[in-house]
Each structure stands twice: as C-alpha cells, then as structure tokens.
TrEMBL record:
Name under which the protein is recorded: 2-iminobutanoate/2-iminopropanoate deaminase
PANTHER family in UniProt: 2-IMINOBUTANOATE/2-IMINOPROPANOATE DEAMINASE RIDA, PROTEIN HMF1-RELATED
UniProt family annotation: Belongs to the RutC family.
CDD domains reported in the protein's UniProt record: YjgF_YER057c_UK114_family
Organism: Actinoallomurus oryzae
Amino acid sequence: MVRDIGCALSLGIPPEYDTEYRSMSTVWSEHPSERGTAMRTIHPEHFPTPAVPLSHGVRAGDLLFVSGQVATAADGSVFIGDFAAEVNSTIDNVEAVLRAGGASLADVVKVNAYLANATLFAPFNELYARRIGDVPPARTTVVVDFGHPDVRVEIEAVAYLGDKD
C-alpha cells in the first residue's frame, strides 16, 4: 500500500490532523488506479507534509494534476503581505509541483484560480498574465470563502506532458 504524500497547508485544520514538516527529495509513488493506469503522486522537495489526505500533484498517463497551491512563507506557513507577492508565491508553488512532475508552465492546459474577493480579479489578471506566457491555458476564476483569513488566492492546474517521462 502506498502512503499518499501531497500538498496542503494546515489551513484551519484542527490540531489533531496536523503533521510535522519533513524535508525530502521529490517522491514519485506509483500505484495502479481502478482503470489500470499507473498514477504517481508528486511531492516536491522542501514542501511540507500534508495535513489532509491529498497530494501536491498526481501524474496519470499524459496528464499532471496540481492540487490547489497557496502562497507560503519560507517556513511553510501561510504568506501574509502584499497581494503581488502572494500571487507570485502561489505561482512559484504551482511551478515547483510542475517541475517535480516533469512539466513547466508552458505545459499547462487548464488553470482553476480562486480569489477571496471579486475586487482582486483585475490585479490578479495582470500578475497572472505576466507569469503564464504568451499562450495562456484555459482558465476558470471564481470567488470563494477560504478557510484561512489570510489566503486571498489559490491556484490549481492541469498539465499535458505528452511523451515526457
């Protein structure tokens, strides 16, 4: 049985579910899905161990799914500060999972972005456009109520890797 290793900060999670952070190399845990396709969970180096049952990323065939990432400080805690820095840190975290799975932002075909307030849409759009490149992927952006009061943006992504191993 493969132990899921993955993503998420302890955003309002009760203390009994918290786990200690651990530093580790990128880990690919392979396990068969019910359909017989090998899936690999991805845990980038220096990312905290998840406090909830999910993975930072999962590679299934030619697709790499990146779980929702938020901005983090160097110690792994939720980033609190300037919105531009928050967006850039969030995208940095998405990129870290992509790299660990053998992909880059150029391979992303779909993004789901979550914002804490509709007034953040214009500044988010400007910052996102600078980072995502000339050929933006399909994207959905919605306003949500985060479980942590300091989180204003979360981004998840799907990348197509084709024949990449």
